[in-house]
Write a structure and sequence with these properties.
Helix content is about 55%, strand content about 20%. The protein is α+β, with helices and mostly antiparallel strands. The strands form two sheets. Strands 3-4-2-1-5 form a five-stranded mixed beta sheet. A four-stranded antiparallel beta sheet has the order 6-7-9-8.
Amino acid sequence: MADELGVAAPPAARALTNAILERHDRNETIAGVLFYGSCLRKSTHEGVLDFYLLVDDYQAFYSSRPIAWANGLLPPNVFYLEAETQLGTLRTKYAVISLEDFEHGVGPDCVHPYIWARFAQPSILVYVRDEESRQRVIACAAQAVKTLIQRLGVFLPARGAIQKFSIAALWQEAFRRTYGAEKRPESSDTIRSIYQARSERYDAAGASALVLLDEEGWFESVVARGSAFEVELRPSRRLWTRWRWRFSRPVARGLAVLRLLKTAFTFGDWVPYALWKFERHTGEAVEVSERQRRHPLIFGWPVIWRVLLRR
């Protein structure tokens, strides 16, 4: 994970990172900036690039107490930014979260998968303030992979205490469940393509995490058998972890809705972005009137309900 996070960021990611830092006057409480998501996976700057801005303290970072309070109550806060660069107009949505909340969010005790599901996937640490911050981010990325396996590996087929599976099956099952937990519509082909885009990375990270979890006592045993693994996990632990995930799904979905509503107040003019995102994921365009675009939470409910009812 240290090697992956230390890869040189592409020019567009560096340019947007600078723009984000400048927007916040290179606030000294900023510990790091992480680039992740579909634009990293596809090596493109077309669309909207995703970043996480890691800070020390919300009250010290923001000049507005209500915004700081909202960030602490339900992290992260999400903002939108467009920057004119040598590459043309670049767009980003970036999430602000404290390093402490980020560390909690990648851990196995976190109820929802919002953070660990994202950062079990590849990311690049474009900016870091100091070596201590770098080491904390590296530890978070490694923990995110371990948490994903702990929480979702239990859903792969088992006979008694024994499971036999490929790393590919493990990751794709995890992607399917985590995207589904937030009602983010992704097809089976998309899920497969996410794994295939970096299959060697996912195989290496998954294998390493399985060995570490075995050493830490999560599994009774882990044995590599060619390209597959055979793991032994106590049935009671598997049953508890499955039940816990089923309980966390409605929590995750409810929090996703609350974050979306909160983002409506931090994002800026978010309606064009939301429509673009919906069309990109479903292939269906949604038309709205100018009045609905300008006042979506007042006049947009006919469109919102239609989308929700169609799942």
